[in-house]
Every structure is written in C-alpha cells, then in structure tokens.
Amino acid sequence: QVQLVESGGGLVQAGGSLSLSCAASGRTFSDYATGWFRQAPGKEREFVAAITGSGGNTAYADSVKGRFAISRDNAKNMVYLQMNILKPEDTAVYYCAAQPRGFILWTTSDHYNYWGQGNQVTVSS
C-alpha cells in the first residue's frame, strides 16, 4: 500500500511557473513508477508526465513537453512536477499516481493503483 499526498499548485498568470510535490508513504518508494495526471472541468483525466522508480527514465505528454519537468527524490519519498511557461489550458486538478512496476512508464490512468487527492492549478490569461 502506498499513500500519496500532493502539495503546491495554486493560481498563477499565464507564462508563470508553479511546482507540485507528491509525498509518498508506505512501501519502498523506489519500486514504484510515478505519474502526474490532470483533469479539467468537463474533460477526461489525461496523462501529463511519468518517471520510473529509479528516476532514470521519464515520459511527457506532447502538450507539456519542454515546459514541464518531473523528478523524484527516493531518499525523501518525494516526486515533483515543475511547471513552466504555464498556459490557461493547463488549468486543471493535478493528481499524483503510483504503480508497482517501477521500470514501466504507463501513460494511461488505468495502470496506476494509487492516487493522491488532487491539487488545483489555475492559470489566468
């Protein structure tokens, strides 16, 4: 069992930056690949970024590539999402997720077993 708690987010103007953090508790965190997903009102949850358990490999949605960066610190059981050059279309609730096959970068939400509570990110134009 893994528990995930997100923090960060908030309100920012377009072009600005925000950082999200995800604190994990439970089993050996480095065994788990971790992803960030987001869901805007009236839309389906969509993949944003993922990172393997070791942190050696990452994947990004085309819409955020070059603007967002996912990272992790296994010694602290933390995963981060640095979001730069934010756009109004990035407005959504952002979720941290984890799954136990740490070497696989799943980009669909149904492969993730554990989820955080979600954190609102709002980008004003």
Main features:
four-stranded antiparallel sheet; seven-stranded mixed sheet; 51% strand; mainly beta
Secondary-structure topology with pairs:
Elements: E1 2-8, E2 10-13, E3 18-26, E4 33-39, E5 46-51, E6 58-60, E7 68-73, E8 78-83, E9 92-99, E10 114-115, E11 119-124
Parallel strand pairs: 2-11
Antiparallel strand pairs: 1-3, 3-8, 4-5, 4-9, 5-6, 7-8, 9-10, 9-11
What would your notes on this structure say?
With 125 residues, this protein is mainly beta. The chain has no helices and eleven strands. The strands form two sheets. Strands 2, 4, 5, 6, 9, 10 and 11 form a seven-stranded mixed sheet that branches. The protein has a four-stranded antiparallel sheet with strand order 1-3-8-7, with no helix packed on it. The relative contact order is 0.32. The mean pLDDT is 96.
In short:
0% of the residues lie in helices and 51% in strands. The chain is mostly beta strands and 125 residues long.
Q: What fraction strand?
A: over 45%
Major β-sheet annotation = 7 strands, mixed
Derived from helix and strand composition plus strand pairing, the structural class reads: mainly beta
End-to-end span in angstroms? 40 Å
Number of strands: 11
Q: In which range does the helix fraction lie?
A: under 10%
